[in-house]
Records
---
Amino acid sequence: MNKNRIIGISIIALIMGILLIIANLYIDYNLRKYSVYYARNMEHKEGTQPELAMVLDNLDLMRKPKKSNIDYRYDGRCIIYNFKYKVDNNVPRLSRTNWSDDTVYCFVDNKYSSYYFDRSFEIKDGFSRTDTTYREINVNTIDKGAVYHDLYKNFGFLVEANVNRKPLINMQKEFNKKYYKRFN
């Protein structure tokens, strides 16, 4: 009788452990897959772009519309190219980068300028290229509205494709707990 009781308790504990692992994996999957939807519905300070940050952080789970001029690269960091707006062999691209702890994302436009963003997708640094050299752009002189407009012109289709994907189980509260400090 004791042996049967030990086996029964062991089986119940094993089943509960497996269910707990599956539940945690589903929560992580849900928060990543629907992150753009959650980011749009989360309060965030002005100047941050949580939707774009979530697209780049979770590109593997995002809906990516088939477009002829778009190319995705996943080789340790994700890069999205938009050949539609290519000028003089300079292709606009958006990437997640490992440049430093403070800059996590990079946008290179077709006018030989590059902008670096922090984890909340606020502009932190900029460079423009002349014929042979790069020069740093003073962050205070950058027209942030124009940069974000250009960013959305080139890559906003990814946000639009994912922002209306409503999850079956809404975990907005869990998303807010996890990301509120990052975007505020």
Note: The mean pLDDT is 82.
---
Amino acid sequence: MQLPEQPVAGQPDPAVRRNADQLMAAIDEIEVEKATSYRDDTPLPTIGAAPPVQQPGQKDMSQWAIDASGVLKGVSIASVPIGFAVWLVGQVDPLTLGIILGSPAAIALAAARLVAKVKDANQAAPQPITNHFHGTVHHDERTVTSTTRGVIATTRNHH
């Protein structure tokens, strides 16, 4: 038996549909009335009266980036005379020239990275652990082996 206040099975509740329609109408009204973005073009405040000044020294980089850039600078400067001589000869294809001149830089960069990784690995070697105890200490050196078998697992520890 169907009560009159219940919706028919499989049909949406008219009150829910009416609320959804009101909500959609409110959303459409908001979208038409208000902008969804805003650009503030007011200039940013300056702190202090002094103009910006170029700071001395190298830019902030990681140590690895500083090392790699130094290697690349050295290799690139060393390859300039070789490239100039080959360019004067004019017998080499530009792609081949690029490969010949680029390979020492790539090899040097790879070697520098390998050295840095080995150095990091050596520094991260575990240090021996030393414990200092004061008072009576009992040191137990028993070895426990464990075997777990069966559908319902049972563990038996043997000393």
Note: The radius of gyration is 38 Å.
